[in-house]
Design goal:
about 400 residues, disordered N terminus, about 75% helix, Amino acid/polyamine transporter I, mainly alpha
């Protein structure tokens, strides 16, 4: 794929790359267990498929940004396809990020307080919501410190799990969750897509930068996933609510378990904050185009919804729902990029077309429940916003 340079994005779009990278890495590490439950060792191939979708989407986002006068890469969805597709895209983006924030908080809560993960999940969401509502940016030093803790922790984890050979594995029956099953690749790919799509952060300054970021996240999650499967195997990873800690114990690394918990807390918080910020941004875009009323308490309301989800749904189901919602949103973005003329794209490959097809295929095969929730969310959200818009106009 040619990644010839495009015009540099505004400076604001180049900020926040490290937190977005760290958040995506943390989400990927947290879904290693559910992904292994779906496909076993094949989940590593699924990560490659999720990365391919993310890479195509990143290039599409750069192309859209270069052509959007407002600097909003999603504006072309409205400009090219009209208000209804834009509404659906916005609703899917907003709902997907809320579900993902709840899923990440609940998965991280299992590491922090195994006996009451939902309570900790609520605390994480409330803390992140407070920052979003107050529009308080983390001090640069604090943000870099959180990123460093999360990244270094995962590096230590990988080194520990690869340093010691695993114990002899028991024979695995084909029907056991976590067995090597290529038919589960699409499910696992959908789960891994949550990190790429939900915590995308600012649009990359160039296609090359976007692909580099996606590649770095893939390598990091690949190393973590290999370490977990290397020590536990698919079935044990599938059964464990905290596969990173169990893999450390299997590798005689229980002494550094508190460090891993700290890293999960740091990365999980960054991811939840990025997801809630993205949800608030999607709500703001809808309001700016007159699709919803302008309400200054919207971020608070979104945080309340995200805090309530871990109390009623499990983390794996939330990840599946988030995957279907977010991949639906990326399908719209790739569709807008697909409609661009050849001269406005960064390379000869039709990344928008390929990204659209793969987003639909992976999303539709991730979870029946997730697809149903995404379809219902799009239908109800689209109809509700249309009805409100007509009422406000008249």
């Amino acid at each position: 794929m040619s990644v010839t340079a495009v015009e540099l994005a505004p400076a604001a779009t180049r900020n926040g790359v490290l937190p977005a990278f760290t958040g995506a890495l943390a989400v990927g590490a947290l879904v290693v267990g559910p992904a292994a439950a779906a496909a076993g060792w094949w989940s590593l191939a699924a990560l490659g498929l999720a990365g391919l979708v993310a890479g195509l989407t990143a290039v599409s986002r750069v192309d859209l940004l270069a052509q959007s006068p407002s600097g909003d890469p999603h504006a072309l969805v409205r400009e090219r396809f009209g208000p209804m597709p834009a509404r659906l895209s916005g609703v899917l983006s907003l709902a997907g990020r809320l579900a993902a924030a709840a899923a990440v908080a609940l998965a991280a809560g299992a590491y922090l307080t195994p006996t009451a993960p939902a309570v900790t999940a609520v605390v994480l969401v409330v803390g992140a919501t407070a920052l979003v509502v107050a529009r308080v940016a983390l001090p640069p030093a604090a943000g870099r410190a959180l990123c460093a803790v999360a990244i270094v922790t995962l590096l230590v984890f990988v080194a520990a799990t690869l340093a010691i050979p695993p114990a002899d594995a028991l024979p695995v029956l084909a029907a056991v969750p976590g067995s090597d099953d290529p038919t589960g690749v699409l499910i696992a790919a959908g789960l891994f897509s949550v990190g790429f799509a939900g915590t995308a952060g600012p649009t990359p300054a160039s296609a090359r930068a976007g692909l580099a970021c996606v590649g770095a996240v893939m390598l990091g999650v690949l190393a973590v996933g290999f370490g977990v499967l290397h020590q536990l195997g698919g079935p044990r990873a599938a059964l464990s609510p905290t596969p990173l800690l169990d893999a450390l114990t299997a590798a005689d690394g229980a002494a550094i378990a508190p460090l891993v918990v700290l890293g999960v807390a740091a990365g999980g918080f960054l991811a939840v904050r990025a997801l809630l910020t993205g949800a608030a941004g999607a709500a703001r875009e809808l309001a700016e185009h007159g699709e919803t009323p302008t309400w200054r308490h919207t971020p608070l309301a979104l945080g309340v919804v995200a805090a309530g989800l871990p109390l009623v749904l499990g983390s794996t189901l939330l990840f599946e729902i988030a995957a279907c919602l977010l991949l639906g949103h990326t399908a719209f973005a790739n569709s807008a990029a697909r409609s661009m003329p050849r001269a406005d794209r960064t390379g000869w490959v039709r990344t928008g077309c390929c990204g659209l097809v793969l987003s639909v295929i992976v999303g539709a095969n991730t979870s029946i429940v997730g697809v149903a929730v995404a379809a219902a969310t799009a239908a109800l959200g689209g109809l509700g916003l249309t009805a409100w818009r007509r009422r406000s106009v008249t």
